[in-house]
Amino acid sequence: MSNSKQKQLESVPPVLACLNGSDYQMERIATGERWRGHVVLSRPREFVFYFNQAKTFRRLPQADFRLFPIE
Questions:
Q1: Where are the domains of the chain?
Q2: Strands 24-28, 46-51: parallel, antiparallel or unpaired by DSSP?
Q3: Which residues is 56 bridged to in the sheet?
Q4: Per residue in 10-69, pLDDT tens?
């Protein structure tokens, strides 16, 4: 594999994702599952994520999830 394919994306803090307004990949740390959507609200311990495919909002604990930019 080339270095560009192995490149790890850095996770983005929910507060920055919220201010940016762009779509992100949200990953559940424990399972590696990923969803696409955007952060609509960020608080110290949780954030509200809008899931594009399901068209739903959910409050999620920040410690259990990571956000990655979509390339």
A1: 10-69
A2: unpaired
A3: 51
A4: 999 999 999 988 999 999 999 999 999 999 999 999 999 999 999 999 999 999 999 999
In the prediction, which pLDDT does 1 show? 42
Q: Is 37 exposed, middle or buried (0-12, 13-18, 19+ CB in 10 A)?
A: buried
**Token pair of 14 as six digits:** 């929910």
Q: What CA–CA distance (Å, rounded) separates 35 from 37? A: 7
- Report which of 34, 33, 38 is spatially closest to residue 57, judged by C-alpha positions: 38
pTM for the structure as a whole: 0.81
Neighbours of 35 (CB within 10 A): 17
What is the predicted pLDDT for the residue at 59? Answer: 97
> Which CATH number, 2.30.30.100, 1.20.140.10, 3.30.457.10, 2.60.120.280, labels domain 10-69?
2.30.30.100
